[in-house]
Amino acid sequence: MEQLKAIIFDVDGTLAETERDGHRVAFNQVFSNAGLPWQWSAEFYGPLLEVSGGKERLVSYVRQYHPQFEPPVELEVWAAQLHRQKTKYYRQFLSKGSIPLRPGVQRLIEEAISKDIRLAIATTSALPNAMALLEKFFHPTTFELIAAGDIVPQKKPAPDIYHYVLEQMNLSPRECLVIEDSQAGVQAAAEVGLPTLVTQNEYTQNHDFPGAIAVLSDLGEPDAPFTVIRGDLGIYTYTTLATLNFLHQQVLSIKP
Ligand code: XBP
Ligand code: MG
Fold it and tell me: Is residue 17 lining ligand 1, measured as CB closer than 6 Å?
């Protein structure tokens, strides 16, 4: 019988609510530095998140909302330049410590380490951005593999990043559980047969998440239980390794 051997975490929206108060604010800062009258409100940013990847999101935004805009160089090159500056600001915001981890994340990761569960990261974020968060909250050896950004040709919802993690760690999908916050992430994982637990957030609460084993408000804490949006969580009110094993058993009971 396959056992749960590894947990693969998404970063943005899953480990921490980085989008609204981190990435978005950093984008607005570089727009203003560049003398552009563009500012993304928290509400406006929601639909923009349908495009994964900061560079890709910026290119898509310009094409849709400012088709007349003429950058000094090719649009993709210009977006990559702006994105490098945005990375600098994003890292500064994180170092100021204004973005905490989501409920239950630190506790679950510590428990997983104590029980020799292998841990990995699979994110669409650029590596320096993902590292800014990880270095702030975790020991360098916490995650066996950090798969981020342009390490693969196509970003979520393409399955490339999850495929890469499985290959690098020599794991089969049914030995793992993914924790994600978005439909694009669930789709990417599902395409390689990886089961996913969703912890939704303000930007993804209207997503359907077909294919997820369960959908929760967050991982929960002993004194702050999660809300079950969908799925069978048995007796559990917050996520521990026992909870993940309980969900994993449900996955194994479904024939591959
Ligand atoms: C979320 C993303 C990222 C961030 C911005 O990634 O799509 O692009 O919005 O980060 P995930 P960058 O949920 O997979 O962690 O600007 O570094 O791309
Ligand atoms: Mg995410």
Answer: no
Q: Does the C-beta of 52 come closer than 6 Å to ligand 1? A: yes
Q: Which amino acid residue places its CA nearest to atom 4 of ligand 1?
A: 125
- Nearest atom in ligand 1 to the alpha carbon of residue 156 is 14
Q: Does residue 255 have a pLDDT over 80?
A: no
Main-chain dihedrals φ then ψ at residue 74, nearest 5 degrees: -55, 140
Please say whether the dihedral angle defined by the alpha carbons of residues 190, 44, 12 and 232, taken in this order, is positive or negative: negative
Contact 145, 120 (CB under 8 A): yes
- Cα angle 150-16-149, degrees, rounded to a multiple of 5: 0
Ligand 2 center from residue 73 Cα (angstroms): 30
- Residue 58 phi/psi, 5-degree rounding, is -65, -45
54 Cα: distance to centroid of ligand 1 (angstroms): 6
Kind of pairing between the strands at 228-230 and 214-216:
antiparallel
End-to-end CA distance of the chain: 13
Contact 157, 180 (CB under 8 A): no
pLDDT (tens digit per residue) in 144-174:
999 999 999 999 999 999 999 999 999 999 9
Residue 15 to residues 71, 81, 130: CA-CA distances in angstroms?
Answer: 35, 27, 10
Q: Which atom of ligand 1 is nearest to the CA of 51?
A: 7
